[in-house]
Amino acid sequence: MHDESARFLHKKPDLNLLIKYGFVKEDDIYKYGTTLRNGEFRLEVIYDKKQERFFSEVYETSFNDVYPLIYMDVAHGEYVGELREEYQGILEEIARKTCMEFVFKNDSTNDLIAYVKEKYGVEMDFPWTTPGAKDYAVLRREDNQKWFGLLSTIKGKSLGLNEGLIIEALNVRYSKDETDKIWDNVHIFPAYHMNKKSWITLILDNSCPLEQYKTLIDQSYELALGKKGGKK
To answer: Are residues 43 and 67 located together in one domain of the fold?
Structure first.
């Protein structure tokens, strides 16, 4: 099936709303089907809860076979264009009626974002607009604009983990030249893409130690103040 991750980027479905929309639950898979072009085609959409991804497939009804042209940018013409527009409209409706907007999908990530906002009044800042940096968010102090956190979505291989793994991570400041003492290479790693002597990377998943992470965020917030509270 066709991976619809790009279309549902930063969106997380409410499973109850999927059911309400018409999806049918089968274990960890939610399935939805409808017709296109007055029954000439059939659209199937699934949401895989384990992978946290939507997939779709369009079939030509008379042959019960996949119709690949709808996914090909090089396929033009009025007929395929109208079919593509109808298919896209249904997916956009599913996104609008069943999903909430999230830059980061993991519950632990959003718990920590909420913690920072409640305790420090700090919102995520997205200073980069290039496609490769769209999933990077900075946490900075209001008084001196210095960073105390960097949220990102990175590949597991960046931390020496499974190459196919996609990870949400948080970089925080740590006592200079003592970072190696806290690395466990399970939850806490040498900093990704930052100074490993004064930053560490925290993996954000459902098994991460949230209370420890909150303490590390608090420490990072204080370290970002500096001795004189000056700017970075």
So the answer is: yes
